[in-house]
Design goal:
The complex is a heterodimer of chains A (241) and B (178).
Chain A: E1 4-7, E2 10-13, H1 14-33, H2 41-66, H3 68-71, H4 88-105, H5 110-135, E3 149-151, E4 154-156, H6 159-173, H7 188-204, H8 220-240
Antiparallel strand pairs in A: 1-2, 3-4
Helix pairs in contact in A: 1-2, 1-5, 2-4, 5-6, 5-7, 6-7, 7-8
Chain B: H1 2-14, E1 24-28, E2 34-35, E3 40-42, E4 48-50, E5 59-64, H2 69-85, E6 91-96, H3 103-112, E7 119-121, H4 126-130, E8 138-142, E9 148-153, H5 159-171
Parallel strand pairs in B: 1-2, 5-6, 6-7
Antiparallel strand pairs in B: 3-4, 5-8, 8-9
Helix pairs in contact in B: 2-5
Classes of the chains: A mainly alpha (241), B alpha/beta (178).
């Protein structure tokens, strides 16, 4: 776990740095291979940029709407750089909505655009797991396994590393340069990536020590992953007909 | 396809957890969701405060140093929030990382800013080690049951963030550690 790296007088927050590097590498990869999907690299960049800006603004606005009374005594907090004042769900919704509107205005074919974005999503999956490893988030359940790691007062499953490894295998298997991907119908590349990622989440979530539980002890992330997997398999079956 | 989905459902069922089994309240470690590690430190007059003695009340621990500019920047907001929420039972402990600071400078800092909440002096660095202090300031929000509900590394925190986190602590139902 390396939450902070001290470089001279600078204290660098490693988890955030890993996410930024992941975004940069993923975006570069997506831009490089976007023409294969008949999407221009510029369109990929603009789509991601629009979604990110809208996501951050939406996350802050949602947070203010949830807790307006906290901002009345200190209105300048609206512009605070604290990431704690962001609502992730509101941000994601605003980002997706902005991307949809942008894509429609630019007349981007939705499935081809999703295919073009898939390398970015694949690299970000690795970056998120490594970022969790650096911060100690997404930790595993206690274990006696030889490869367990000491974290948060116990020897635990290194779930962040399991997830990084799974995401890396998915990226390598679905590397955008592979020839066999060239003839896939629009949308198939994205759906296969999403199905593989959901399958990995469905399996690996069982080792997480921080799962949100539904009644009966069912892990919420597994239920969501199973639903996404089912949707992807259904869509893939339709595409192959 | 049906076989894969069926296997998935089976795996979800096999890997379900009994209610409360994942709760981290029984383990003491400086992480959200876990029990706050216990410590005892003295203020400038030698009066000792032990964290576990404060169980039953929400506690905010702010680790700071006099040379740390973000610490200085967020102190007025902390003081305002303390004055506002102390009547509702909020405990705010300002823990000076004295092993990385100068005691006289730390005292002057607290006096200059007119801080009225307890200032404790971590002269041996034991709390800094116990709470894996990696940056200053760092703030821990601890609920009535002694469970850490939020950790904010770095600063300055905005007043709105402080207000929201403290309101959440005051509203949080008391949970028993397993």
């Amino acid at each position: 776990m390396f939450p902070i790296v001290q470089v001279g007088p600078l204290a660098i927050q490693t988890p955030g740095l890993i996410l930024l590097i992941g975004l940069w590498l993923g975006l570069s990869l997506a831009e490089k291979f976007a023409p294969q999907r008949e999407v221009s690299p510029n369109d990929v960049y603009n789509l991601v940029f629009t979604a990110l800006v809208a996501g951050v603004i939406g996350a802050r606005l949602t947070y203010i709407l949830r807790y307006p009374q906290a901002f009345i005594p200190s209105p300048l907090s609206v512009f605070s750089l604290n990431p704690g004042l962001l609502d992730p769900l509101g941000g994601a919704a605003a980002g997706v909505l902005a991307a949809l509107i942008h894509g429609q205005r630019k007349k981007l074919p939705p499935w081809a655009a999703l295919d073009a974005l898939t390398p970015l999503l694949a690299v970000l999956s690795i970056a998120v797991s490594l970022s969790n490893f650096a911060s100690g988030a997404g930790f595993g359940t206690p274990t006696q396994a030889a490869w367990g790691i000491e974290l948060w007062g116990a020897k635990r499953h290194p779930t962040q590393l399991y997830e990084s490894l799974a995401a890396a295998i998915i990226l390598l298997a679905l590397w955008p340069g592979h020839r066999y991907l060239q003839n896939w119908a629009a949308g198939r590349y994205f759906l296969v990536f999403l199905a593989a990622s959901s399958l990995a989440r469905l399996f690996l979530e069982a080792f997480r020590g921080d799962s949100i539980l539904l009644p009966g002890g069912i892990r919420l992330a597994q239920a969501l992953a199973w639903s996404i997997l089912a949707f992807c398999l259904f869509q893939l079956q339709r595409l192959s007909k | 396809m049906p076989a894969l989905l069926l296997a998935g459902l089976l795996w979800i069922w096999v890997s379900r957890v009994p209610e409360g089994r994942l709760a981290q309240g029984g383990v003491s470690t400086p992480r959200k969701g876990f029990q706050a590690p216990d410590f005892a430190l003295a203020d400038i007059n030698g009066n000792s405060i032990r964290l576990s003695d404060l169980r039953g009340q929400p506690v905010v621990i702010n680790l700071w140093a006099s040379w740390c500019q973000p610490c200085r920047a967020e102190m007025p907001a902390l003081q305002r929030i303390y004055s506002e929420y102390q009547p509702q039972g909020l405990i705010l402990l300002g823990v000076n990382a004295t092993s990385q600071d100068d005691l006289a400078a730390a005292r002057a800092f607290a006096e200059d800013l007119g801080l009225t909440f307890p200032i404790l002096y971590d002269t041996q660095g034991s709390v800094a080690r116990l709470y894996a202090l990696s940056a200053l300031p760092t703030t821990f929000f601890i609920d009535h049951a002694g469970v850490i509900r939020e950790v904010v590394i770095g600063g300055p925190m905005s007043e709105a963030l402080l207000r929201i986190r403290i309101q959440q602590l005051l509203e949080h139902p008391v949970e028993k550690a397993p």
